[in-house]
Amino acid sequence: MLIDPMIENNLNLLVIDDEKVVQDSLVGFLQNMGYPVIYAANGKEGIGIFKKNDIDIVITDLRMPGFNGLDVLKTVKGFSSSVEVILMTAYGDMDTAIAAMRAGASDYIVKPIKLNELIASLQRTARYQNLKREKELYREKLNQITAKHQEEFDLHNIIGESPAVRTVKELIRIVRATDTTVFIRGESGTGKELVAKAVHYGSKRKAYPLISLNCTSIHETLLESELYGHERGAFTDAKEMRKGQFELARGGTLFLDEIGDMSLQAQAKLLRSLEEKKIRRVGGQREIDIDVRIVSATNKDIERLIQENKFREDIYYRLNVFVIVMPPLRERKSDIPLLANFFLKKFSRETGKQVTGISEDALKILTAYSFYGNVRELKNLMERAVILCPGPEVLPKDFPPLNNQRRQFGLGLSERDFGLDRIEKDIIEKALRRVNFNQVKAASLLGISRYSLIRRLKKHNIG
Asked: Residue 243 in 3-state DSSP?
C-alpha cells in the first residue's frame, strides 16, 4: 500500500484502548510508520491527554469500562469539530458503530485490526479532515473579507495620483495576479503595509489570512517562537502548544515588516524554511509543510547592511524577487492635498465634527513642509488639526506642531521660509544645543522620532 507522506507528517494521533496488546502492537506499529502517537489506557485518561495536546485524530475502542468510545466521541466533538474520531469495534457492535458514525465519527475499523485497513482509514480520515478544514477556513475568511476588508482590495486606498504612486499601483496590479515573493522598500511611514494588503487582498490567496509580523517589535529570543510556534514544555513559559505565524498564515500571506532588523541567526533559519517549505516548532520533532506567500518590507539600506555583514546576501536574493518602492512624501508633494483631504474626512467622521475643508493657506503650509515622517506624520497632523479646529475649515493655526516648533526657535511663519533646508537645519542645530546635543531629547523637543532626526542629521551633515 502507498502511504501519503504529506498526510503522515501532519498527523498527531491519540490511541485509546484498555487492552495491553493494543499498546504493544498497534501503537508501536504506528510509531514505526512515523506517526506521533500518544496512548491512553481508558476514556477519561484519553480526554485528559486530548485537552493538553494538539491532536488531529483520535482512534478509540468502542467498548471500554466506564467512559466508553461514544463518550469519548461526544466529548472530543464538543471541544473541537475539526478533530476526527476513528472507532475500533468488534463484529457484534456493528449497530453501535453505525450509530457512532451518525453521531460524528469519521470512520470505524473492525477488530482484530488489519494494519493495512488502519492505514487506509487514517488516510481517508486525514483527507476528509483537510478538505473540511479548508472549506471552513475559506468560508470564515471570505466572510471576514466581505465585512471588513472590502475596500482594502481597492488600489484607491493607496492615495495619490503622482507619477511615482501610479507606478506603485501598476506594479501591484501586475504582481498580485501571481504568487511571486514581493519585497517592499521605502522609508518609515510611507505606507508599505498598505502595499502588502493591496497585494494580498487582490490575489488568489485573499480568502486566507494575511498575517503581519514586525521584526523590530519582537525580541530576538522570542522571534523564533513567534514565527514557528512552540510545543508544550519547549521552554519555561511554554505551558501550551502554540502555532506560529507561518502556520497561522497557511494558504495566505505572511508579511514580514522591517525584515532588515532580523538577526543573522534568525535570517539563516528563515532561509531554510523558505527553501524547504517546511518548519519545525520550537521543541518539536516533526516537520510541518507550509504554503504561504512571503511579502517583506524594510526601511533600511539592505545593500549597505550586506556589506557590513549584518544581512545575509543569500536571503536577500531569496526575498528580492519583485521589488516595489514606496516614495517618500517629500518626493510626491502633489499628493499632499489629496492625502490631507482624505484624512480630514476620516477624522471628521470618527470625531463627529463638521470639518469640511482645508484653507488655501493651510494647504500651502503642508505642501511646503518636508515630511520626514512621511504619510504617518501627515496623518497625525491632520488628526490633531481636526480635533483642534473650532470651525468648518482647517486653518494654519490648527497645526501647532509646526507653528510652535518655529516660534520656539525665534523663526517667523512666512510662506517662503516654510520647508526650506536652511531653516530646517537651523531649527535642528538650535534644538541640539538647547539639550546639550542629546539626540533623544532633541527629537522629543522637535516633535519627531529619533530615527527621523538621525536621517535629517545625515541630510544636513550635522555632526
From this structure: strand
